[in-house]
Write a structure and sequence with these properties.
The chain has three helices and four strands. The chain has helices at 47-56, 77-85, 97-107, and strands at 39-45, 61-62, 68-74, 91-95. The protein has a four-stranded antiparallel beta sheet, with helices on one face. Strand 2 and strand 3 (68-74) form a beta hairpin. Helix 2 (77-85) packs across helix 3.
């Protein structure tokens, strides 16, 4: 799978292309990162950035201390780790332990 808007240049080839027999085009954007097994990851964002995270990830929940909790469906743990690293110490992966540990390993490399 690829993102067409990231192409800088293309050159058409003379050869033809026939899709594989099992090819099934995506019908909805959320199918792009799909898997048979989805992991649910709970993340708590610090109150300093909670306002922006409410806009970016609606559907989370406000905690009494001003922090913001979001549950992510994770099809690709590598994507999730990169997504969380952008928030630095402002995000805490609460569960599952496997994803919390994956983020910790990436930070301590």
């Amino acid at each position: 799978r690829f993102r067409a808007e990231r192409f800088l240049e293309i050159t058409p080839l003379k050869e033809g292309f026939s899709p594989r027999a099992d090819f099934r085009p995506l019908e909805r954007p959320e199918e792009l990162l799909s898997t048979d097994e989805v992991i649910r990851a709970k993340v708590v964002f610090e109150s300093r950035i909670a306002r922006w995270l409410r806009e970016r990830y609606p559907g989370g929940r406000d905690l009494p201390d001003g922090r913001y909790e979001v549950t992510f469906p994770v099809a690709d743990p590598n994507w999730f780790v990169r997504e969380m690293l952008q928030y630095g110490a402002e995000a805490e992966v609460v569960e599952p332990a496997s994803l919390r540990e994956a983020v910790r390993r990436m930070v301590t490399r």
